[in-house]
Amino acid sequence: MEIKVLSNILKANQAIAAENQQLFQKNQLLALNLISSPGSGKTSILEKTIELLNSTIRLGIIEGDLQTSKDAERINVFGIPVVQINTEGGCHLDANMIKMALPGLPLPEMDCLIIENVGNLVCPASYFLGEDSKIVVLSVTEGDDKPSKYPIIFRESQILLINKIDLLPFTNFNLDIAKEDALQINPDLKIFEISCKNGQGFEDWTTWLAKKVNKKNDSFHY
Amino acid sequence: MMQEVIKILEEQVKTNKVKKVHKVNLKVGKLMSVVPSSLIFCFEILAKDTLMEGATLDIEEVPVKCLCQDCGTEFIVESFIFLCPQCRGTNLKQLSGNEFMVHNMEVD
Touching check for A126 and chain B: CB below 8 Å? Predict the structure, then answer.
């Protein structure tokens, strides 16, 4: 006998992600899911972004790592709300981990939540956490072939930050090829070239982000 | 992921008073970063000592299909190049490729 099942395998995650999304909406905040391979500079990007936006936008951070609270300690210096999730070996954050972490953040007093996912370009692409946008980070030292090798995360993201752009003269990273490949996978991808070391590109990136946050907040004031 | 599959199958086994599961068919979109051989490996481990032990896990890969909203061409995306083969446009609507579902099962 045949049983038609037609059931989404990730439905449990999707349902919790929808709850998270509703909570973000209710609190009028923009939620972003920051994804990259380990060592591409996610936490440094957060530090620099917080430094530039802290006086105008009320940020909150969720840090995802396999072990340690090292990243949360780095963010804590700025005096903004931060929660550390340790996945104890898990290679991605899922919606339930975010749901459990949210009571640790003062959501009504925040304009923007940035979730730093576990360093991994594969699995985080498949797990919706309730965010408005995924941001993928690619650093120059990783090589220009990452978009073509890991296309799914570049397809699922709305923003690409190309980090460590100051190292371009010292590597064989071909910026045109990286951007071309990424745009072939996702023609709508918004790209920023940045350097946490010398601050290049951060004005553009943070101005754009601030606009996005304000737009999200404004959409509730009618 | 496979634990979620097993949960869904167990629900079905219970509601339909199944005695034995012979085959399970999954549909997996090409954009789901799922490796079929890993799924099969995990299924065999998790199905052990259950009514699913020994069942075949069949995984149908669903291609990424797009509709060009400029010229109306429907096409399958190869090598992750999201470009209309007819008019070279990028104003595309994705029709498939993100599936990840238990489609059906064959049981006694």
Answer: yes
Contact check, Cβ <8 Å, A9/B80: no
- A123 closest CB neighbour out of B12, B33, B106: B33
Query: pLDDT digit string (tens) for A27-46?
Result: 999 999 999 999 999 999 99
> With an 8 Å Cβ cutoff, are B33 and A125 in contact?
yes
Non-local (6+) Cβ contacts of A221 within 8 A are: none
A185 and B CB contact within 8 Å: yes
User: Given pLDDT bands bounded at 50, 70 and 90, which one contains residue A63?
Assistant: very high
Residue B41's contacts (CB-CB under 8 Å, 6 or more residues apart) are: none
Instruction: Tell me the shortest Cα–Cα distance from B31 to chain A, in angstroms.
Output: 6
**Which of B26, B33, B98, B101 to mutate against chain A (most A CBs within 10 Å)?**
B33
Instruction: For residue B96, give Cα distances in angstroms to A9, A48, B69.
Output: 16, 38, 15
CA–CA–CA angle B101, A116, A148 (5° rounding) = 60
Q: How far apart are the C-alpha atoms of A105 and A56, rounded to whole Å?
A: 19
**Which residue of chain A is at minimal alpha-carbon distance from B20?**
A1
Q: Which of A1, A6, A125 sits opposite B103 (nearest CB)?
A: A6
- Lowest-confidence pick of A26-40, A195-209, B28-42: B28-42
Flag whether pLDDT at A221 surpasses 70. Answer: no
Tally Cβ neighbours within 10 Å of residue A8.
15
pLDDT at A220 exceeding the cut of 70: no
Q: What are the Cα distances from residue A202, in Å, to A69, A162, A210?
A: 26, 11, 12
Which residues are CB-neighbours of A37 under 8 A, at least 6 positions away?
A119, A120, A121, A142, A146
List residues bridging with A161 in a β-sheet: A137, A192
Does B33 have pLDDT greater than 80? no
